[in-house]
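User: My instructor asked us to take a sequence, write out its structure as tokens, and then describe one feature of it. I'm not sure where to start. Here is the sequence I was given:
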Amino acid sequence: MGLLDDARGVAAKFEYPDAEVNKGVKEFIRQMDEGLQETGKSMSQIPTYVTSVPNGTEKGVYLAVDLGGTNFRVCSIKLNGDTTFSLTQSKVAIPRELMVAQTSKELFFFLAKQIESFLKTHHNDHFEEHQQRRQNGEDITDEHFFQLGFTFSFPVHQIGINKGYLIRWTKGFDIADAIGKDVCNLLQSEIDALHLPVKVAALVNDTVGTLMARSYTSPGKTGTLLGAIFGTGTNGAYVEKLEKVTKLKKMEEGSDFDGSTGNMIVNTEWGSFDNEMSVLPNTPYDVSLDEESNNPGIQMFEKRVSGMFLGEILRRAILAMIQDGKTELFKDESSGTNDIHSTCTIADDSPLYKQWGIDTSFLSIAHEDRSAGHHITRQALNRDLGVDAASSEDAEAIKILVEAIGKRSARLSAVAIGAIIISTGNLTLTAGDAVADEAKEVLEEEVVDIGVDGSLVEFYPGFEEYIREALREMEGIGKQGEKRIRIGIAKDGSGVGAALIALVAGGREGSG
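Assistant: Let's start with the prediction itself. The structure tokens for your sequence are:
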């Protein structure tokens, strides 16, 4: 067998046929329902206490802050009431010593000081007016305060729209005395100590923010059903019927929300779908990646879908081919067999030999490469992976692997999207739809709107089309149903999305 046949043999292990996709959808729906009924299940299905989505007519000025890692971002968002908004922001690095401070007060005081600095720079009139009122002993009512959405990207046990207890730190943070404390209260205490006109109105998950941002900016009157992230990680949040979230009744402390809409936005945490591996596809490369990861047996869906892992899956597949004595990848023995007449060599310190050595951007480059003799991929092999003088056949073999890994990721992504659309009944077919009319135009009120964010769905070549291909083959969606699904980019869930959640939480128009 030649090199390309060998590559196709490896690529075949990543095939995820229609029958398996449909099996995946059924199991996804089952695990969704299970997570709505009980805590501690594979899919967490976390109630967010956000009970409505915006429609684009909302107005006002709101604040949002985002503690997502090593940076802290402060934004003010002016909603114009016509699906448009303007955003002002500042960003500051968190000093390393505050990430491991003795007390949480040190970190949260620093965050509050950044909010103060932002207000003085961008909303100084409002800030000064508030200080004057306070000094004069005047009554200060709610409308004098900015409502703030707090995106806090660490594991929390959320029990209300602006109440959540820190479970553990990640991303290099380690402040022991914050564990078990309400992070909104920690921030509010420091804001109050500085006498700032700011109320922490909502604790925000960035995936929920993605849903809100898309719902505000999307065309038409249809509210958005699902906000999904397909980037470094993957997750989704969607609008569920409140009556289906039966575990809320068992969570005594979770009674503080507006139930009048009959809906609840649920954060699925779908990265952990099917940790039991009952339906997810598997290859030797997935197995070894998981075994050598820092959380074996956890986030099994994410490990097959998200950008953080696709490069590592590819690296393991390439390495297996290099180490297979029978495969000719990167092994031209003399320059005569290489179309650039130079012997192919792999540097001793090549990223191919290091865990996480391949970035997902490499997959995008190879997947999109249409250059003569795959010149662009060969350049990337040299520049990024230390593979010198790879042949055009080597590059084509890599492209075959890349396409298989990317396509599987997109088809798995479709399972999550399709399962939520089917489960929520948003595509219930009318009698007229029963006969598939290929020429039938989709009316605005028939559209199911999905907001997506993340580098994979935005930049990976053909990712959305692979998703749509899989949706067309799903029982309960089909060709006609797929036409009714509108997928649109939702930008800045942790900024404008957080502001919109603060708006919903406040239930009124924001400060001017």
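For the description part of your assignment, you could build on this observation: The longest strand covers residues 71-80. Try explaining in your own words what that tells you about the chain.
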